[in-house]
Amino acid sequence: MRTLVFIPAWNEEASVGAVIADVREKLPHADVLVVDDGSVDATAERAREAGALVASLPFNQGLGAALQTGYLHAYREGYDCCAHLDADGQHPAAEVARLLAEVEADRADLVIGSRYRDPAAAEARSDDYRPTLSRRIGTSVFRFFLTLATRQRFTDTTSGMRAANRRVMALFSENYSPDFAEIESLQLAVREGLRVEEVPVRMLERAGGSSFLTPLRSAFFIFKGVVVLLVGQFRPRQAGAQR
Amino acid sequence: MPLAAEGAQVHLTAQTRIVAAVLAIAFMLLILDLIRRNRLQERYSVVWFVAGLGMLAGAAFPGLLELLADAMGVRDTNVALFSVVLLLLLGLALNFSVIVSRQAAQITRLAQERALEKARAQALEEEARQAGREPRSGKQPLEAEEERLEG
């Protein structure tokens, strides 16, 4: 079973090295690919020093395009399963290993790490993730509309910690919205009849950098997300991704 | 309010407004359909060809415009002409947005391919280093890859 763990990174030189070290320690058999999304700092150098393979996009393309690059690599290089996590240190590699175990056991095609589902399962710690108000509002709105669109309950719609098998790789390497990666991809996967599952995970406060979400941007982000979901409902289904 | 223009006065009739609304709805449906099909355009030439044919028809048969003005409920033929040209321009602007979208996607894929090529080169370089034979130059892993593909 060959596994690829990829990490989209945009100007994350402060934290990317530690994230790679964490992945290499907790997932020693997985290959690590950092997708450097046109960083202007030393992200690519730090990643190479930490022993990861680096795919550098020549200019910033957005998270969706970066994630798609990872799926494309995993698909073409014949990996059996793949996982991705954020480069800012919010996602512990030990939790990613649990997601991968679900995919390897073939209990789901796509597994999402949720920081909201069943938070009591993971014991609270002082460095645990605490969502901001605008993040909480956005989360509820997306949760509502995505549940409406997919008729499946999702709690953490914007989670960047996921594990997937080859069926998902085939779908996402060709159909992945470069603008609105997380939500549309969930909708797409469910529409294509893939088994999508959420697993409760523990997330940490970010180690470096700051969130891109200001209140105004959050509002725009939410508006865009709802429009994307609406249009996505009318997209024709693909024949190629059927199981 | 008259249903169609009857007198000598040029005023907005109910018919004009209905036609404008219908056109606007048709336009929005077109946009949605383009997005839905993920295939926003085929060729510039078709659009320009149709636009050119329209202009030709308008020039050759001014009666068409008068007919159009009549159909739109406008007494002044100029207003009908302006409306048609405005719509054509709107259509072309949309067409260009579509082309821009497609090219943006192509650029993204190009960037992804290039990034993955570089990652593959890095992997081959590291493989060569681990095998004990330091690559003589940065070109060697790529040459090895080419040989592998040819063989």
Task: Furnish the topology, listing elements before pairings.
The complex is a heterodimer of chains A (243) and B (151).
Chain A: E1 3-9, H1 16-26, E2 31-37, H2 43-49, E3 53-57, H3 63-76, E4 81-84, H4 93-104, E5 110-114, H5 133-150, E6 162-165, H6 166-172, H7 181-191, E7 196-200, H8 215-232
Parallel strand pairs in A: 1-2, 1-4, 2-3, 5-7
Antiparallel strand pairs in A: 4-6, 5-6
Helix pairs in contact in A: 3-6, 5-7, 5-8, 7-8
Chain B: H1 14-37, H2 44-60, H3 62-72, H4 77-130, H5 140-150
Helix pairs in contact in B: 2-3, 2-4, 3-4, 4-5
CATH topology of chain A: Spore Coat Polysaccharide Biosynthesis Protein SpsA, Chain A
Mean pLDDT of chain A: 85
Strand order of the largest sheet of chain A: 3-2-1-4-6-5-7
Distance between the termini of chain B: 81 Å
Percent of residues in beta strands of chain B: under 5%
| Helical residues, percent of chain A | 40-55%
Compute the number of structural domains of chain A.
1
Structural class, from secondary structure content of chain A?
alpha/beta
Number of strands of chain B: 0
Number of helices of chain A: 8
Q: Quick one: CATH class of chain A? A: Alpha Beta
Mind explaining what this structure looks like?
The complex is a heterodimer of chains A (243) and B (151). With 243 residues, chain A is of the alpha/beta class. Helices cover 40% and strands 15% of the residues of chain A. Chain A is built from eight helices and seven strands, in the order E-H-E-H-E-H-E-H-E-H-E-H-H-E-H. The model of chain A has no long low-confidence stretch (mean pLDDT 85). Chain B has a domain at 14-111. In chain B, 77% of the residues lie in helices and 0% in strands. Chain B contains five helices and no strands. Chain B starts with 13 loop residues before the first helix and ends with a helix.
